[in-house]
Amino acid sequence: MSDFTVTTWAVLCFYGFLVGVSKNGIPGIGILVAVLMLFTMEQAKEAVGFLLPMLIAGDICALTYYRRHAVWAHVLKLLPWAMVGILIGYFALGTVGNNQLRHIIGLIVITLLGIDFWRNTKGEVHVPTQWWFAGIIGVLAGIMTVMANAAGPLVMIYFLAMRLDKHEFIGTGAWCFFIINWLKVPLFWSRGMITLDSLKGNLVVLPAVVLGAVAGILVLRRIPQKWFVIVVKVLAVAAALKLLFS
Known about the structure:
mainly alpha; single chain
């Protein structure tokens, strides 16, 4: 990463800011960062690995503010299944190259945004609350979080089905992803996706993540979010399509 230009570092810091915002105020924008990282860093696995410590930093910021709002029953229902998905995703990573991973991430993002669009257009949709639903969501989320750091929309659907209020939603999600993301660290390290050099780079981006977290808590939640989120999702679709067909 010593060959990164000032412009590249500025872009990565902007992504860090968006991570902080997504973890602490507007969860829907996190998926855009997962895609944009692939256009900034040449190697897909390197991009996925570099993003993970940024996400953990965002989780820590969210826990600082929302930790007491978590509903642990839902965290404990998802985690065992997510661990199964994480292992599946880990072994799958060993069989795909960087170009294949870019296409897979593009497909994952398109699928997740399609699910999110369907949920929003249908309004109140009956979603199962039985144990098997938590199992399906958990396994899929585990696979997607390893392959693309993009399990957020799936977990959001589960938490919405559980009818969590705004603060419980963010607090429960913060604990859930904090644990899941830490479980991924040794796996990414073993694949060379996280290195000492990449961690040094993460330290450069860390202040931007914290700044984004503060913005998400104090500022951005007080402004209309509807059109902002729509624009972000349109950009995510465009970026994902480019990944699929490039």
